[in-house]
């Protein structure tokens, strides 16, 4: 980009030198060479700039290139065309008028596609254009048309060019009333149009006197104008010139008034000059000028008030009311402009999400939460002011956008973490704000929203890995989201189409291997992808709420299967079914009624069912869960704490909640007989459970060594591949229930018919 900036200024220097050579009028050959170099060089510079900077909208620049070619053609043939007759004498004018039309079309395209029609900008531009047009018509166009010793069309064209310049001026002014005015390429474009206007005005002046050609100095403004047009195309900001955005209604600043007031005064000047300086005309001019001044003063006051109101509305629409930072809409717009600029150093987003902010609001109230957000925004503003854009896009989510490489974002993330580590002093409390940060560099994405989604994915990954982490986006994160969406859609269909099924794993006595129960485990066989692991789809089911339907299905299917085994005479008297219950189910007061209805329909006692719950459900103030669990125990249902020892294992909740069993996590069972530490943990769990009169089940038992260790630790029941994997109901009955028929110590129950079951 530095090369592009240097190239634009080098072109200006070369163009000025060639213009000076042309003005010296050394010889016709030198003049032709200088004008040819400027003309051809301008076209080449525009083509190079278009290919080098690659603006999003190329059409305006293509039209400007064609306009330049037309103008160059007009300059080349003008001297020849003056001596021709018929249509040929208008050859230069045909080229020139075509150039004006193409240039006007280029500016109109740029305005309509990027800025749109702005009433206030159009009105301001029309005021200036009408004032200039009046002066040009009265003093240039009409005098030129009155010259009688040449064809009328020649005279009309001689005075027409300043009016065409006024049209170009109107379009450029409207462009300048947008955010384009701060771009170097726009300033070069204004100088180019100014050169065109001055040159045409010079020719119009001699045209009003009856001449069509004159001193080489008359062409000097055109050469300088072409030079500025070349510099405009070579400057890197040309890519932004066709991607500008409108401003809100602007107050009439001194800069605007310097354009508008002379335009408003033009009728008064015309009256005085054209009608003479008599006292009557002078009084009329003064009165008209006074009225215009009064109207301008009134209009300035109204416009300024309206502009202030508009700015306030725009600010409220694009900024966060609490912190004063830009909001998501403003961020998206600014990042879109950053992407459109095509700067080589790249663009990145840093997405910051406060960890545990909800707890601050829940424990200390939203007022304290707001104060914390204000303090965080101040610290972030201090770190980013002048270098990056900072926005608050949600409750506790902030985004920083900047140019640069990912390493710069990494450095800023480290500074932010350091700043966040400093305690926040709030009234009556001291807090520390911990933030997870996701970084998304510009890769293959070409929109602000897609880049923001990448940053969101990165911060979600950071939060999933723990508090205060920083993660940089990679394509695998996007793929994982696609996979997750596909899993969700397929899972919804599976629930509706009955693709889920239940498998059963035996729970046995560790000493004898005799089955005393079974755990019901949901399985999913996708018609195309085949078996899908519960590790993949259960978290999705919990996030989407499908876990309620799945849990109800597993519970219903388990009770139904128990009744079928009973009716086939395969069910031992103390055999029970263990079913996993989700947190959502345990917060539902209707769960007791659903289970009671199922037990009644299938004529099963409450002791035939045990619900497995996770430790996390029992943590905190869960009065609703406590009430539901109490009501379930009232039905005689067993309650087992799953994966015990890996979470928030505590005597307090085991004593407060009506649990009946703990299941030792497989992580501790694996090391039995090998790791003394795991054996000590299991021994402690058994001792604690015995003291609280709770049963103990060991999960994940795979070897005889582990089984023997459990027997030595007085763990009466176990579950694992040593005794069998989870299998379909018919295979479970064949492997585990029918084998009990051969046991001399077991007496089978009286078989019941399936008809009696259907009547239940």
UniProtKB/TrEMBL annotation:
Domain of life where this protein originates: Bacteria
Domain EAL, residue spans: 484-740
Keywords, alphabetical: Membrane, Transmembrane, Transmembrane helix
PROSITE patterns: EAL, GGDEF
Membrane-crossing residue ranges in chain numbering: 7-27, 33-52, 59-81, 87-109, 121-141, 153-176, 188-206, 218-236, 257-276
Domain GGDEF: 345-475
PANTHER family xref list: BIOFILM ARCHITECTURE MAINTENANCE PROTEIN MBAA, DIGUANYLATE CYCLASE DGCP
This protein's name: Diguanylate cyclase (GGDEF)-like protein
Organism: Kineosporia succinea
């Amino acid at each position: 980009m530095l090369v592009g900036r240097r190239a634009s200024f080098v072109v200006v220097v070369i163009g000025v030198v060639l213009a000076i050579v042309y003005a010296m009028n050394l010889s016709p050959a030198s003049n032709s060479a200088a004008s040819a170099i400027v003309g051809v060089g301008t076209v080449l510079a525009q083509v190079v700039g278009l290919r080098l900077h690659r603006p999003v909208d190329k059409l305006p620049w293509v039209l400007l290139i064609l306009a330049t070619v037309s103008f160059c053609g007009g300059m080349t043939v003008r001297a020849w065309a003056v001596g021709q007759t018929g249509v040929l004498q208008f050859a230069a004018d045909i080229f020139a008028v075509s150039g004006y039309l193409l240039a006007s079309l280029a500016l109109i395209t740029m305005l309509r596609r990027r800025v749109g029609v702005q009433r206030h900008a159009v009105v301001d531009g029309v005021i200036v254009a009408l004032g200039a047009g009046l002066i040009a018509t009265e003093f240039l166009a009409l005098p030129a048309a009155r010259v009688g010793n040449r064809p009328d069309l020649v005279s009309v064209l001689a005075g027409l060019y300043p009016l065409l310049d006024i049209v170009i001026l109107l379009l450029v002014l409207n462009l300048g009333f947008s955010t384009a005015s701060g771009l170097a390429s726009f300033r070069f474009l204004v100088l180019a149009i100014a050169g065109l206007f001055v040159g045409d005005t010079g020719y119009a002046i001699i045209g009003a006197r009856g001449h069509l050609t004159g001193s080489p100095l008359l062409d000097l403004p055109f050469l300088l104008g072409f030079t500025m047009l070349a510099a405009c195309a070579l400057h890197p900001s040309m890519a932004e010139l066709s991607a500008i955005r409108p401003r809100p209604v602007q107050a009439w600043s001194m800069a605007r008034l310097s354009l508008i007031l002379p335009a408003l005064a033009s009728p008064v000047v015309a009256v005085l000059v054209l009608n003479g300086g008599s006292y009557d005309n002078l009084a009329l001019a003064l009165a008209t000028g006074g009225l215009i001044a009064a109207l301008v003063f009134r209009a300035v006051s109204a416009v300024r008030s309206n502009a202030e109101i508009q700015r306030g509305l725009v600010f409220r629409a694009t900024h966060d009311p609490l912190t004063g930072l830009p909001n998501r809409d403003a961020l998206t717009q600014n990042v879109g402009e950053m992407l459109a600029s095509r700067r080589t150093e790249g663009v990145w987003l840093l997405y910051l999400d406060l960890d545990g902010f909800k707890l601050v609001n829940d424990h200390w109230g939203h007022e304290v939460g707001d104060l914390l957000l204000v303090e965080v925004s101040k610290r972030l503003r201090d770190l980013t002011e002048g270098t990056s854009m900072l926005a608050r896009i949600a409750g506790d989510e902030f985004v920083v956008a900047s140019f640069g490489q990912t390493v710069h974002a990494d450095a800023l993330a480290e500074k932010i973490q350091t700043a966040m580590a400093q305690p926040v002093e709030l009234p009556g409390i001291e807090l520390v704000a911990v933030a997870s940060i996701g970084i998304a560099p510009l890769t293959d994405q070409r929109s602000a929203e897609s880049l923001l989604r990448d940053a969101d994915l990165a911060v979600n990954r950071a939060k999933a890995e723990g508090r205060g982490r920083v993660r940089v986006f990679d394509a695998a994160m996007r793929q994982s989201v696609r996979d997750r969406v596909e899993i969700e859609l397929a899972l919804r269909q599976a629930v509706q189409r009955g693709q889920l099924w239940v498998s059963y794993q035996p729970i046995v006595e560790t000493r004898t291997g005799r089955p005393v129960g079974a755990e019901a485990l949901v399985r999913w066989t996708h018609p195309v992808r085949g078996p899908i692991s519960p590790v993949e789809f259960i978290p999705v089911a919990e996030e989407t709420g499908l876990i309620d339907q799945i849990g109800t299905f597993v519970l219903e299917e388990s009770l139904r299967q128990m009744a079928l085994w009973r009716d086939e005479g395969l069910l031992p008297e103390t055999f029970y079914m263990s079913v996993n219950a989700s947190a959502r189910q345990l917060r539902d007061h209707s769960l007791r009624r659903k289970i009671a209805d199922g037990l009644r329909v299938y004529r099963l006692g409450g002791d035939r069912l045990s619900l497995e719950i996770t430790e996390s459900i029992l943590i905190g103030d869960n009065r609703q869960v406590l009430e539901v669990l109490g009501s379930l125990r009232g039905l005689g249902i067993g309650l087992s704490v799953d994966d015990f020892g890996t979470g928030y294992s505590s005597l307090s909740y085991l004593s407060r909640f009506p649990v009946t069993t703990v299941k030792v996590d497989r992580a501790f069972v694996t090391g039995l007989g090998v790791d003394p530490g795991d054996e000590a943990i299991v021994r402690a769990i058994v001792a604690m459970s015995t003291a609280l009169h709770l049963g103990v089940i060991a999960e994940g038992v795979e070897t005889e060594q582990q089984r023997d260790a459990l027997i030595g630790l007085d763990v009466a029941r176990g579950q694992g591949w040593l005794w069998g994997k989870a299998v379909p109901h018919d295979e479970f009955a064949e492997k585990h229930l029918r084998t009990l028929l051969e046991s001399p110590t077991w007496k089978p129950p009286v078989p019941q018919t399936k008809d009696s079951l259907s009547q239940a």
